[in-house]
Amino acid sequence: MYEAEEALSTEIGIKSRLFDQTLELNATVYKVDFDNFQLNLFDGTQISTANTGEAHSTGLEIDFQWLPPVPWLTLQGSVGFNKTRYGDFPCGPTTWDDRDALPECGEDAPPSQDLTGKRLAFAPAESASITPTVRLPLWPAREIGAMFAVDIIYQGDHFLDPDLDEKTYQEATTKINARLAISPLNKLWAVILNAKNLTQQKERLLVLDAQQQGGNYVAVTHPDETLYSIDFRYNFGFLD
């Protein structure tokens, strides 16, 4: 059995428009304190939920949209810094090759490790993105234009399992996506060419160590090759 998780969130932020309304800049500082923080744990056969006690998250998020002094360019971006830590958690889950239970966890307790003050899984300390977008007339007589955008997305390193097994460590990644859209000014239709993960980054979403089968891991991954696609869109009905 496990108890309900509670969180107390405190944040302060600012929204601003600068340089003759050409720059929209927002920033938020936050702090979240969890009580009875819930963890989903996998023991090799089933997933269970357990409470860890306290956990804490503090951070800063900044996002912006800028219209430079050129009519065809727009810049959007964001940056985030996040620090997450367990509170007092002496009986945390441990890796498959650690079969010892700490004395304070009880004689019949499962294998454990002291995770007090350690970072939480699935929580990169840094993240950032920037998207330059170019819009140009393609066929002015038909009022058809083109839009080209590039997404540069950075995600810091993090762990992919609550036991912080080194085999579940995900290194920082920088992905680049691109898209080219062609459409009329009234946006009645659009043809969009997409290219995802041009840098062919290897990124895992989840890694579980099968403790009943020591040394075996199950991983869920993103495709590490570049994916190309074409979207066709059409708006039915009346447009203003």
Describe, in short, the structure shown.
The chain has 240 residues and is mainly beta. It has no helices and 15 strands.
Explain the overall architecture.
By secondary structure, this protein is mainly beta. The chain has a single domain (6-234), classed as Beta Barrel (Maltoporin, Chain A). 0% of the residues lie in helices and 55% in strands. The protein is built from no helices and 15 strands. The strands form 4 sheets. Strands 1-2-5-6-7-8-11-12-15 form a 9-stranded antiparallel sheet, with no helix packed on it. Strands 3-4 form a two-stranded antiparallel ribbon. Strand 1 and strand 2 form a beta hairpin. It starts with 5 loop residues before the first strand and ends in a 6-residue tail after the last strand. The relative contact order is 0.12. Pfam families: TonB_dep_Rec_b-barrel. This is TonB-dependent receptor. InterPro entries: Beta-barrel_TonB, Beta-barrel_TonB_sf, TonB-dep_rcpt-like.
